[in-house]
Amino acid sequence: MLKAAVYVTMKQNVLDPQGKASQEALKALGYEEVSSVRIGKYIELKLDTNNRAEAEERVKAMCEQLLVNTVVEDYRFELTEE
Amino acid sequence: MLKAAVYVTMKQNVLDPQGKASQEALKALGYEEVSSVRIGKYIELKLDTNNRAEAEERVKAMCEQLLVNTVVEDYRFELTEE
């Protein structure tokens, strides 16, 4: 069994309103040191396979077909033994 | 400057409808090996400080006050030099 941890973030040049709103809220709570907040998705996939090379390819395809909007989002992932 | 990477996931005993829907969609696309999908938040905070101990405390407080719903979500974070 393998586990894929996928980190999805907005591309740097794309506005992140949710991040901006959280930053303002944190400042209002007194956390002045926060200079930027970017909010993305953290996805955990459990895979019934031990074939690492194949899993690498297929997780990439799953991200680009369904899990990530590659027009406005970047992604990276890590595979670990479960 | 420090960077905090915060990983927010639904508690294990809490239903994750978004994860379930993604799992069904992946299966429909032929990715039968996916046995579970859990979707959470990935938050990147940039902090204008180099005081690691203080940053540790304050990021924990930011999570529990604003960024995380501790009733249904778990979280962990990592601090790195930016």
From TrEMBL, chains A, B:
Instruction: Provide the GO biological process annotations.
Output: 'de novo' IMP biosynthetic process
Cite the GO molecular-function annotations of the record: ATP binding; phosphoribosylformylglycinamidine synthase activity
| Biochemical pathway | Purine metabolism; IMP biosynthesis via de novo pathway; 5-amino-1-(5-phospho-D-ribosyl)imidazole from N(2)-formyl-N(1)-(5-phospho-D-ribosyl)glycinamide: step 1/2
Q: What is its EC number?
A: 6.3.5.3
Top EC category: ligase
Main localization, broad class: cytoplasm
Q: Which InterPro entries match?
A: PurS (IPR003850), PurS-like_sf (IPR036604)
- Write down a Pfam family by its short name: PurS
Gene3D superfamilies of this UniProt entry? Phosphoribosylformylglycinamidine synthase subunit PurS
Point out the coiled-coil segments of this chain: none
Q: Which reaction does it catalyse?
A: N(2)-formyl-N(1)-(5-phospho-beta-D-ribosyl)glycinamide + L-glutamine + ATP + H2O = 2-formamido-N(1)-(5-O-phospho-beta-D-ribosyl)acetamidine + L-glutamate + ADP + phosphate + H(+)
**Where, per UniProt, does this protein localize?**
Cytoplasm
A GO CC term? cytoplasm
Give the record's family classification.
Answer: Belongs to the PurS family.
> Do you know which NCBIfam families this protein is assigned to?
phosphoribosylformylglycinamidine synthase subunit PurS (TIGR00302), PRK05974.1 (NF004630)
Write out the function statement from the record: Part of the phosphoribosylformylglycinamidine synthase complex involved in the purines biosynthetic pathway. Catalyzes the ATP-dependent conversion of formylglycinamide ribonucleotide (FGAR) and glutamine to yield formylglycinamidine ribonucleotide (FGAM) and glutamate. The FGAM synthase complex is composed of three subunits. PurQ produces an ammonia molecule by converting glutamine to glutamate. PurL transfers the ammonia molecule to FGAR to form FGAM in an ATP-dependent manner.
Protein name (database record): Phosphoribosylformylglycinamidine synthase subunit PurS
Q: Which source organism does the UniProt entry give?
A: Insulibacter thermoxylanivorax
Gene of this entry = purS
